[in-house]
Design goal:
By secondary structure, the protein is mainly α. The protein is 82% helix and 0% strand. The chain has helices at residues 5-29, 31-51, 53-58, 70-120.
Length: 125
């Protein structure tokens, strides 16, 4: 006997829903984690390029604005040292933020499932 279209549709939707729910953790910790890692590392490398630390360190001994006097060279050197320190602090803080975001990505489903179980199982008071 042939099944009706609506019963086949409901069976298909249930099968797809269950398959997606079961596949979610696999995707989250494989492809999703790789995609998140790639995105975060690209953002970090983009920040490194925007801070231009390599160029700043390469030109450390050269005077700024073509001021070749002794005082101009000394001021330029110490100003560049200050710039390097500030930019390294910014890079360090951003690295901490990105590591925290990756940690949240890894811990997110476990925390969500733990909170769901905590809500579903009543505590004995």
């Amino acid at each position: 006997m042939a099944q009706s279209t609506s019963s086949r549709a409901v069976a298909f939707l249930l099968r797809e829903f269950v398959g997606d729910v079961l596949y979610f953790p696999v995707w989250w910790y494989t492809r999703g984690l790789a995609l998140t890692w790639r995105t975060l590392s690209n953002r970090w490398l983009n920040l490194v390029n925007r801070l231009s630390l390599r160029i700043l360190l390469k030109n450390m001994g050269k005077p700024m604005y073509g001021d070749y006097t002794r005082s101009g060279r000394i001021i330029s050197f110490f100003f560049r040292i200050m710039l390097v320190v500030v930019r390294l602090v910014v890079l360090g803080l951003w690295t901490v933020v990105e590591i925290a975001m990756l940690g949240l990505w890894v811990a997110g489903p476990a925390v969500a499932i733990g909170m769901l179980i905590r809500q579903l199982i009543p505590s004995g008071s």
